[in-house]
Design goal:
This is YcfA-like protein. The protein is of the alpha+beta class. About 35% of the residues lie in helices and about 25% in strands.
């Protein structure tokens, strides 16, 4: 399995914006991103930190994979 990159929070936000997610709200250092589809609302929470640990990037990838095919996400999250 490929290794995960350490990404900054703002870069993860930009990646998810490519797939149609928009910033819905922010509380403290966490940004809620939402995408509305025919099925319903899809929400992801992203820490807005300078550098995210690989485990955090893995967790965001896993959550986002519920809504976006993992093959499309992997080019942004894997080394």
């Amino acid at each position: 399995m490929p290794k995960f990159k350490q990404l900054p929070g703002p870069e993860v936000v930009k990646i998810l914006e490519i797939f149609g997610f928009k910033i819905h709200s922010q509380r403290g250092s966490h940004i809620k991103m939402r995408r509305v589809t025919e099925i319903g609302k899809e929400t992801l929470t992203i820490p807005n930190h300078k550098q995210l640990d690989t485990g955090t990037c893995r967790a965001i990838f896993k959550q986002a994979s519920q809504y976006i095919p993992a093959t499309e996400l992997s080019k942004y999250f894997h080394i």
